[in-house]
Amino acid sequence: LRKLGHEVCINNGEADIAVFSQPMANAPEIAVGAKEQGAKIFTDICDDHLTHPLLGPLYSKMIELSDQIICPTANMAERVYRVSGKTPVVVPDPYEEALQEPHANGEKLLWFGHIVNVKDLQPWKPALNGIRICTGPKPQVKDKPHKHLSTNGNNWQDNYIEWTPQAQTEELSNANIVVIPNRRGAEYKTPNRLLNSVRAGCFVLAGGSPSHDEFRKMVWVGDLKAGLDWARAFRDELSDRVKEAQSYIEKYSPEA
């Protein structure tokens, strides 16, 4: 903004709190300026980069400067406390998708998420025949497999669609079951994909994770191959379980 000729004043006597989400390299400098103008500093920490060789010092500095830390899960809050001694406030992610009628009675599988996490599907590929992959960005070289979509002999290109908010909604509308694997070390992650999938009317097969545990009565949590077998055996029950889950997750509405 300064390069464009604007005067920049974070507080200007009107803001009481400056909120930093996903801290970037210049965040500490901006935070110091805001504090000098009388603002409180709140930092939202949703990913565990606390011991990362490059990001770790940045996160530590923002934690030091902050009057309050916010985390989306209790697990992430515990990690922040262990390295800093500060106790974050836990504010969960809300759902984002519009409410759809349950449509879980079928074989159409979907995975959506960040492209670097496509690798989480690889151990389950033999069981995921025909699964749709909604992620991005689109491969840059025509006809050349993307490094994250084609690794270790597992090619996910055939049923790949580039992610946009609109594409996510459309894919959820067409799918019956959403697969959400987990990996060791990512226990701090939020259930945001589970929430959006349920909200959009899909049944969820989720890997074991602290953020998934509270939904065990309404979605499958555990071994994904066993979950697929169970879902096929009890297909007629899936939409009823989605309906129950949709009522339950109102506690995760944007308003709440």
What tags apply to this protein structure?
256 residues; 6-stranded parallel β-sheet; 7 helices; 12 strands; 29% helix; 16% strand; elongated
Walk me through the structure:
The structure is a single chain. This protein has 256 residues and is an alpha/beta fold. Helix content is 29%, strand content 16%. The chain contains seven helices and twelve strands. It has helices at 27-36, 55-65, 74-84, 165-174, 192-199, 224-233, 235-248, and strands spanning 17-21, 40-44, 68-71, 89-90, 109-112, 132-135, 150-151, 154-155, 160-162, 177-180, 203-206, 220-221. The strands form three sheets. Strands 9-6-5-10-11-12 form a six-stranded parallel beta sheet, with helices on both faces. The protein has a four-stranded parallel beta sheet with strand order 1-2-3-4. Strand 1 (17-21), helix 1 and strand 2 (40-44) form a beta-alpha-beta unit. The chain is elongated. The two termini are 34 Å apart. The model has no long low-confidence stretch (mean pLDDT 89).
